Amino acid sequence: MIRIFNHYVSKMAFLLLLLELGILLSATILAGELLPPRHHHPGHVGGRYLTSIAFTVVILFSMSALGMYQHTLRAGVRSTLIRLIPSFALGFLLMHALIMLRPDMYMGRASIGLVFAIGATGVTLTRIILVRSAASSFIGPRLLFVGGGPLARDCIAQVAARTGAHPSRVVGCVQVEGEEVCVPEEMMLAQGEPLLDMARRHGVTEIVVALANRRGGQFPVHQLLECALRGMRVIDAATFFEREASQIRIDSLQPSYLIYGGGFDQSFWRAFVKRAFDLAASLVILICALPVMLLAALAIWFQDGGPVFYSQERVGRDGRAFRVLKFRSMRIDAEAAGTPTWAAQNDPRVTRVGRIIRALRIDELPQILNVLRGEMSFVGPRPERAYFVEQLAAHVPYYEIRHRIKPGITGLAQVRYHYGASVDDAIKKLQYDLYYVKNNSLFLDMLILIDTVRVVLSGNGAR
């Protein structure tokens, strides 16, 4: 993993992006040389390069929006083509929309077909080569865990969940006296040799300290220090989960990690950039989505004649209350008893129109007005109701940290985890929110927006 603007990105995904960037740019330039347009447009040379850049950006965006750069993706030829065909189809539609705005970008029907053929072939071959190379056991990182308890078990499960090209490989675990063993017995390494010698013998590239309690006299602090001084990378479980899962795990979190771990940028420059991004993204999406919003409003009104919008008090930055605006997706008497209730799977209170607009996230679009008023950001933790906030803050450690920034229409927890409908779900989503609060940046906001498109297109997570 590499860190870009405080966010961890897979090395292989980044390499794949660079390779495909070059392939798609070359495909457009090559097609323009082999099949030049019959009719010359003024400024055609500049238009050709503009077309190359636009085509590359559009295709990369389409592939990202359909999950082709997800770190869990490890696909063969068939699976790659299944994702690649709709990605290029979406790119084709977006390119035609751009050509309508800039006719000088039109290369001719034959050239466009050649561009897509070369680009699709190059992308497919590149991914096949990377998948084949993933079979090489010496390429992926080799991890050694100090500890064999619940935390080590969760770390190993996280490694198993990452099935992308060149995944990490677990060499084994070193038991610490007094700790309960929760990992399979075959993963426990034999004791009796120094930790550094053991790591070198197994070709370990990184040691992860997966111990919930480090205060006992059995904690191998001197051996770990020796490993670090000899050039072996040593990290703790909190850093491991932050890097591998984009989470700050509550069960492995020490207050010192939040104090000394960096991040939590609240500078004037970050606030200025985020506000400018919020305004630009909100206005663009509001203009583009206006026809859809009008159709949704008519459908809601025709269904039962009730109000189109639904206003509800939520908790915002620094605990300040505000009223969030959404399209109504439930019956008018959804909470007739007066007690706030978590949304459930196949919730009977949701109307027929409500199920559709929830699946497509159309019900969230009126919150753009909250963003324009400065009550919300476009990207941030999901705003919760005060009733649930009081319950969660009383039982969940560090819950109030998520209120140090403005809530968002979309966020890391929304695109990485399904719809939260319980305290346990709230804890899991909080771990993503803490990561975002600590590492938020314009770069991460852009990645979350692309992931949001993927979630909307797939319909995942709605209730």
Quick description:
The protein is α/β, with parallel strands linked by helices. The protein has helices spanning 11-34, 44-65, 77-101, 109-133, 150-161, 195-201, 221-229, 237-245, 255-260, 268-304, 352-359, 368-372, 386-395, 412-416, 423-439, 442-458, and strands spanning 2-4, 7-9, 142-146, 169-174, 206-209, 233-236, 309-315, 321-327, 377-379, 408-410. It contains 16 helices and ten strands.
Structure, described:
GO terms for molecular function: phosphotransferase activity, for other substituted phosphate groups. It is a multi-pass membrane protein. It is found in: Membrane. The chain crosses the membrane at residues 47-69, 81-101, 107-130, 279-302. This protein has 463 residues and is α/β, with parallel strands linked by helices. The chain has 3 domains: 2-133, no CATH class; 142-245, Rossmann fold, CATH 3.40.50.20; 268-458, no CATH class. 51% of the residues lie in helices and 10% in strands. The chain has helices spanning 11-34, 44-65, 77-101, 109-133, 150-161, 195-201, 221-229, 237-245, 255-260, 268-304, 352-359, 368-372, 386-395, 412-416, 423-439, 442-458, and strands spanning 2-4, 7-9, 142-146, 169-174, 206-209, 233-236, 309-315, 321-327, 377-379, 408-410. It has a 4-stranded parallel beta sheet with strand order 4-3-5-6, with helices on both faces. α7 links the parallel β5 and β6 (233-236). The protein is globular and about 70 Å long. It starts with a strand and ends in a 5-residue tail after the last helix.
Mean pLDDT: 85
The count of helical stretches stands at 16
Shape: globular
User: Which structural category do the helix and sheet elements fall into?
Assistant: alpha/beta
Query: Largest sheet, described in full?
Result: 4 strands, parallel
Helix/strand order? EEHHHHEHEHEHEHHHEEHHEHEHHH
The proportion of residues in beta strands is 5-15%
